[in-house]
């Protein structure tokens, strides 16, 4: 159940360390897949001296062995066929990241007149691996919108991509799971049944060693927990993503004031950066002191490097130098990142914003929240996006409160100069993920006791005022692990509800769980998975989503999608909203 | 208090909360229909032997925790319906008691959650419930420790402990939280095994549990089959075209090259006849656009027929949809005075390609190009270095062993290998530089050479640099052992000085590279340190050269 190890094993197999001169040809999507888990220098060590795109024009180099790794899409197969008609290299090994269709294989075979292809192998690395237990399928705007013509519909292309991605994940992990889904979500149901069908269709591939309890694949829908992606997280990775945006393992810092040129685009993956790996889940407060230690360590090294008196010192210096240079690059990277984060926290008064967000998410105190909210959205320091987020959280929380002021607040936002298309997303959010659309009430854990009872023991609950909120996923997983996940709310995708065998599997504690979040997953939830696996040894959880959300992406996606939804006859979103408010 | 008796029974346990807990598990797991008699028998066994005996099967147990687990594991076949209803109620009540609930959570043994799980097994296993063997269980000695390497806690009555059902070792209950299915001989059996409590090591070392090689499917053979049929059909087609071509050319060559004017009509008729005999032509009126460039035919874009497939194509010289190809015919016997005759054949794009691919099928491999040879040299050195390094390291380890002073042979051997390594490093470096500077016009080739060089530099950095600080420790030893007051240098010393010189030169080169790199990335603080370094290296080198020069002249 280690996605990263599985993906790296695949790539190692593709590019063996055999001394031959190799070029790696990729398409747009496999470039991302490979770059998330394998670095340039690792490729160099395996004699992959050139990496290029299949759709580029390339020179003829007959003395190279060519490794082709593509997603078996029509376009990539066509490109490969063209390459084989006019081959640039001496030998071809073809690897695909998923199951290739019969006609695709024929197309390549027909093109290979000169019999240069010596290997065709299906590998199953069709997902972006972020960490050993987190993956994303990168179905996001602007490339691919996941919603179809209504909030309960898939975009057919996105549905196909998701099915293929999950199928590949299961094959990479060697799991043949029982599949369950959230009953109130049409999209989760559809995806679950598609995956079920493909697993059935590819039965010979899914012939794996039996496990003590069948692994569980659980499909959830983001709409049941719209709160988590809207909250400001306070752990390192999550915070960088929320405030600066991690895209396929790189962070674009070119907007940061006074940035050094070499830091405009930085790589931030656990794989390539041990310091980051250690501190991915560290909260912002502790991060400050860790960074300080790191800098001290670096300075101590610099000091010792300056005192060079003997040949021995010098030799040591020369030996340490490459390591030293790597360290210096890494230190300045993290110092830049953290100082940029704290600059944003300061200049956008994120502490106040976050305190209110947590209060909106966890406490029921309408009047007080409203007062704070009104004063915050009039503050000039708070960004427009943060204001919209706060009102959205308020709307989600007090939607059912007869005294709520959602409409007033939205109008206030407009008069304060927030563009109208930004505020409109609040009504879309209520339409997609309002109380009537949700399966559970995420606000139900009002008393401390109920929270303590439902949760995992040993999970640290309230750490401080900024991290009170726990995602809904925590409850769902604790039910699942205890065998208390209700059959009517989380039915099986094969339709069996009371077959004896499946009752057995519900009672047994599951050992391997794969959770897939339709509508995107957050780093906050990855942190939760990490904590649960620490407290529950013996239970392994892998989390995935159509994308990795940050609040802005979540709202942008809704905005984009709502443009193609027809509003129900006679009512605009606004009218319906005022209906509900009145 | 609804459970007075079990509490008395288990009074030997120290913690009061602990025994309420264990009492509960008894009630859940082991209560037989006549709970009264069970309890009394249990009291008596404890009084008699001070050991724990299972009230149901009379098996001896070494500890309380073990008995509990035995009851949970082996005697869960008591049908749930047989439990008296008062018992069910009190268990239900006990579950809700805050202390029990809290403890249950704290200890995370999840007794309540798991016992139904084990009882469900009985639906699969035949009724006289088979047991997992205990023959391999370790008995606790007086001074037993938890077998978990990270724990090693002393096991006593105060720290509850038990055996791992799989390996049989003793663990404290904190490290016995894992459950998996075991067959009767205590091996892992995921399908029909009995749920048993095991340690982490057994849990994670199950076959397949840590497997990180994903599934894959090789399509190579299916692919080659497809390719073989595709190629066969193409061969067929090529053969056909070739035959047509020969027929066409032969027939055409038999015609006189320049017909007299009176025979023009019959001549063109004959030509047409030959053409039609080779392949029937497509009808002009059926085709409106050229099949390759998809443009409409018009006066400026005339229709033509491919002489080999008979299809209608254009003859635009820009797209080369079809062209006339002149074929020279060398007469076999020069009986006539005819010069070599040429016949022109109009061929469409596709036919041309098929015929061409036949001619240029597989080009000879280019493995003997000078660049590839240079690369082979590089890889050979690399392989050689990788083979030699572990030997050297092993020798060095033997030398640095404090207990056994190094003997001369070993020292000699180590020196030899080190020299060999240094030589190959130098040659490796030279080979890498040769590749970098290999003359080429192609941009991609240049890029390729640069990457190879970059890789070779990082190879040198990882493998050569550690080598350099090693000789220090045995050169000092040697100095003490072979210290000779001669003014001139012995041969051995010359060799060692030479070696030092090589090392230093190498370092100087590296420092230079680093300075250049630092300049490029504008790390001026690093440059200062590096330059100082370089100056000192120069100093040292000139000193050594002086020494060496003296000895040579002397």
TrEMBL record, chain A:
Pfam families: Sec1 (PF00995). SUPFAM superfamilies: Sec1/munc18-like (SM) proteins. It comes from the Eukaryota. Coiled coil: none annotated. GO terms for biological process: vesicle-mediated transport. Belongs to the STXBP/unc-18/SEC1 family. This is Vacuolar protein sorting-associated protein 45. It comes from Tortispora caseinolytica NRRL Y-17796.
TrEMBL record, chain B:
CDD domains: FYVE2_Vac1p_like. Keywords: DNA damage, DNA repair, Metal-binding, Zinc, Zinc-finger. Residues 284-356 form the FYVE-type domain. One of its GO terms (molecular function) is zinc ion binding. It comes from the Eukaryota. Pfam families: FYVE (PF01363), Rbsn (PF11464). SUPFAM superfamilies: FYVE/PHD zinc finger, Rabenosyn-5 Rab-binding domain-like. Residues 113-135 are annotated as: Disordered. One of its GO terms (biological process) is DNA repair. PANTHER family: EARLY ENDOSOME ANTIGEN 1. This is FYVE-type domain-containing protein.
